[in-house]
Amino acid sequence: MSAPDHVRIFDTTLRDGEQSPGCSMSPQQKAVMARALAELGVDIIETGFPASSQSDCEAAALIARDLRETTLCVLSRCLPGDIETSARVLEAAARPRLHVFLSTSPLHREHKLRMSKDEVLETTARNVAYARSFVDDVEFSTEDGTRTEEDFLAEVIGVAIAAGATTINVPDTLGYTTPAEMRGLFQRLIATVPGARDVVFSAHCHNDLGMAVANSLAAIEGGARQVECTINGIGERAGNCAMEELVMALKVRGAYFEADTRIDTRLLVPTSQLLSRLVGMPVQRNKAIVGANAFAHESGIHQHGMLRDRRTYEIMNPEDVGWPSSQMVLGRHSGRAAVAHRLRALGHALEDEALDLVFAGFKSLCEKQRVVDDGDLQRLMHGDRDGDSDGYRLASMTVSDRGQRASAQVELSDPGGQRVSESALGDGPVDALFAALAAATDVDLTLESYQVHSVGIGNDARGEANLSVRHDDAEYQGTGTSKDIIEASALAWLDIANRVLRNRQPQDLTLSRLRERVG
Ligand code: KIV
Ligand code: ZN
């Protein structure tokens, strides 16, 4: 079997994405995003449209100083002034690309450019050659290319190649085309335009009819070897081709497309979440790959299948795109097997009567609320409406990392309301903190994973800590949220410790409480 063809990923989140309503970013935010895109493995980052604003110039220059391995591209109209501004901004770039565009369709020629066909041809030739006088890597885009007469489109592309363009981008600017049309167009252009086989053809699809990803994939089938896309599909109007969807379609259906990208797919979800936080635009829950429901299962039939073999209802592994795992959402449609499974993960291996009782309680809770989470299950188990009231609570803490070893002191109020304080040393502040908490509660947890991230932006940002630990062969997950990330870590640790302590209660006591509760 031959190696799959490499499709270049040209990311335009910082240009086409950023110019869409509600998505603007400061130069510093763009620099953060550009670093994440480089780590993700994109081949080309379009950093902005320098002639359009001082902020775009600053961002492009900032990113050019920072990223030396990725090709950095900026956009220009076919105007000498734009091209000069772009060339100045790109001076600091290690791998510069100049991207020039001109509309080619009858509507744009007549109403926007007021140019004849000959003027479009001449303007293309002159400006592509001028861009080539600054850099060797020049991309030319035929704006509204898919609504252009095909013979004229081919002529413009031929002129751009002759003038030195090394990448030819044919945008579906209005998201109007269908996949079959796109595939045919690329096939014919590449087969007939002089010099087409010496350059890279690129697709740039908008999503007005929801076909941006399908059209980009069809362009690849037609011979395109670069796709222009954005994280989360942000972009003008309904957006651009969503990178995460395109990349995973090529990966999951590799045998069909015989093409692949260099994207590290495990970074797709973190990068999507970073963008959401930076621009303050949440991703819809049912969005493919990066939406919260993309690997969530609620119906009893699906959950049952998933528990036997996840391939029954998943075509890719959530871990491969950066989710920690699939999610079994417990709600009205869930069955007993899924509830038992989740209870086991929380450390309650229930059988028969106890499970029947909890499941009955679960069903009646589902009449009142859409989703039953781990906290609700714990409350059902312990007949304790306000959950943590009988657990340890954090009263105060001090963590210092100044000496040879970090130290932490914690003061807790215990389940009986008494104060307990303990201190400990550790290899770092979090290690010391967890050791002090273990000493204060007499609960020993083996840390398996520890993740922190920020939720929200600006003054509203809060730190969220997620812990995964082992205790007596059971696995527990805990979450804590606070303005202070160390405090969030302590809350996550206590969240788990309190559950471990509740599970130490004898089962018959739990059963009698359950009977009382469920009636
Ligand atoms: O949609 C479009 O046509 C564009 C070009 C400027 C590449 O964004
Ligand atoms: Zn566009």
List the helices and strands and how they pair.
Elements: E1 5-6, E2 8-11, H1 13-17, H2 27-40, E3 44-48, H3 54-66, E4 71-77, H4 80-90, E5 96-103, H5 106-113, H6 117-132, E6 138-143, H7 150-162, E7 167-172, H8 179-192, E8 200-205, H9 212-221, E9 226-229, H10 243-252, H11 254-257, E10 259-260, H12 268-279, E11 296-297, H13 300-308, H14 318-321, E12 327-328, E13 330-331, H15 336-345, H16 352-368, E14 371-372, H17 374-382, E15 393-400, E16 406-413, E17 419-426, H18 429-441, E18 446-455, E19 462-471, E20 474-482, H19 485-503, H20 507-518
Parallel strand pairs: 1-10, 2-3, 2-9, 3-4, 4-5, 5-6, 6-7, 7-8, 8-9, 11-12
Antiparallel strand pairs: 13-14, 15-16, 16-17, 18-19, 19-20
Helix pairs in contact: 2-3, 2-12, 3-4, 6-7, 8-9, 9-10, 13-15, 16-20, 18-19
The structure holds 3-methyl-2-oxobutanoic acid (KIV) and zinc ion (ZN).
